[in-house]
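== Folding task for one protein ==

=== Format: two labelled lines per protein ===

==== Paired sequence and structure tokens ====
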Amino acid sequence: MEFKDLLYILTIAKYGKVSTAASELFIAQSSLSQFLKNYENSLGFPLFIRTNRGLFLTEEGKLFVESGKQILAMRRDFFNKISDLQNLKIGSVNFSISPFRAPYLLPRVIPVFTKAYPDIRLTIHEGSMKEQEEMLAQCEIDMGFLTLPMDNEQLPYRPATNEEILLAVPAGHPLCAKAHEPGPTGRAWLAVEDLSGQNFLMYSINHRLRSFAETLFRDHQLNPRIIQSHNSFETLIRLAEAGMGVTFLPETYLEPREGLRHFSLGRQGMSRQLVLGYVPSGYVSKAAAAFSDIVVEELRRQKEAARLIP
């Protein structure tokens, strides 16, 4: 059993379509189809059931995939430990992050890491919080960027930062006149009750900040007007800057914008805990630990920079 063969089968199982798997693996669809046919013939039993809706694992296939994931996880663990012995001269880091945060964090951490550790292969995966937790549980990645609370409480993690959630308000908006002098957060703040009836620009239903907003509205019995919902932070920020409404924004996403003001929610502010999640065994290679250090340091810098933005 070749590692390449395992990777091919697991990728087909992941997507349920040879065409999608071939695209992910950068090989021709016909070549992958022929590989699968030959491989199943060599095993003496089918791994997949072919249907019009795609490929589905047989019972043998399910066992194969489960065992294959364990084998690849052991292989990655082995090479991580070898990397540790060789003082980061070889090795890899598989890191996952949400597509929302990636543009704000990765351009600042990847260059630093690759310059410090040019021989370590860094692979980035993008996924939702749920997808990242699943990848960690299956040992498909070394670490993920998560928000507490996690659905899988068994996953070990390292605290990264306590991130304040701010309200981004168009400059000149009536809410700006209701702002109070800076409190413990060091930033001017708005009473949560003043948010009722405001025009809100919101995130998609499955986003963590959408859940944060809905909980805030419910707990404080607020009745906001949700006028737009989008998946893109940049779209929401630009709409707010254009005066369309207000929106919630994590402090580490702040960038200087003439048309926006940012306020704490209540005198004490509201925040969430960001963490770096690891595989269930708790093993963190030296390469993953080094990358973790760089991420945490960059978040500290982002928080400091955010304090200078009104």
The chain has a mean pLDDT of 92. The longest strand covers residues 157-170.
